[in-house]
Write a structure and sequence with these properties.
The protein contains 9 helices and no strands. It is an all-alpha fold. The chain has a single domain, classed as Four Helix Bundle (Hemerythrin (Met), subunit A), CATH 1.20.120. The longest helix is centred in the middle third of the chain and has 26 residues.
């Protein structure tokens, strides 16, 4: 591998991150519309709305993880122990505020529960946490955009 090739493999792919941010923004916009002015019982009773919310939540978290892993890999921050720790690593690297990273990291557990252990999912808790912590998605988006903007200037 030439020197030029090795340098390009350790640089952030901004187009990849921008595409993921665009997808993430679309997913959260849709989630916001799905959740707007609806109480948990109404959502739970709707056999189309609840699965749609769950799927959009999963795609949201998956997009966040794709971004996290890319930033970690391309900045040689080491291998995460598990997916939840990708948020914490970004907190340590100051891509995300450290307290925010700790707060949002458990989102991976909720995603995993949806995908792998659906029968154990407490839908009330899931929906309440989603509604109460929904602004975290915008906080994440803004933090990643700020990081990319800073990286672009250097």
């Amino acid at each position: 591998m030439s020197t030029t090739e090795s340098k390009t493999t350790t640089m952030l792919d901004r187009q990849f991150i921008y595409k993921k941010l665009e997808m993430l923004s679309g997913y959260t916009d849709t989630l916001e519309r799905f959740l707007a002015n609806k109480d948990i019982e109404t959502i739970k009773k709707d056999e189309v709305l609840l699965p749609a919310i769950e799927r959009y939540f999963q795609m949201t978290v998956d997009s966040m993880l794709d971004i996290n892993i890319h930033i970690i890999r391309e900045n040689n921050l080491g291998a995460p122990d598990e997916l939840q720790s990708t948020f914490k690593q970004l907190g340590e690297f100051k891509v995300l505020d450290k307290n925010f990273a700790e707060k949002i990291a458990p989102i991976v557990g909720a995603r995993n529960m949806l995908v792998h252990r659906y029968d154990k999912l407490d839908k009330n808790l899931f929906l309440r946490n989603l509604q109460n912590n929904f602004p975290d998605f915008q906080t994440y988006l803004k933090a990643i955009q700020s990081f990319i903007n800073l990286e672009t200037k250097t």
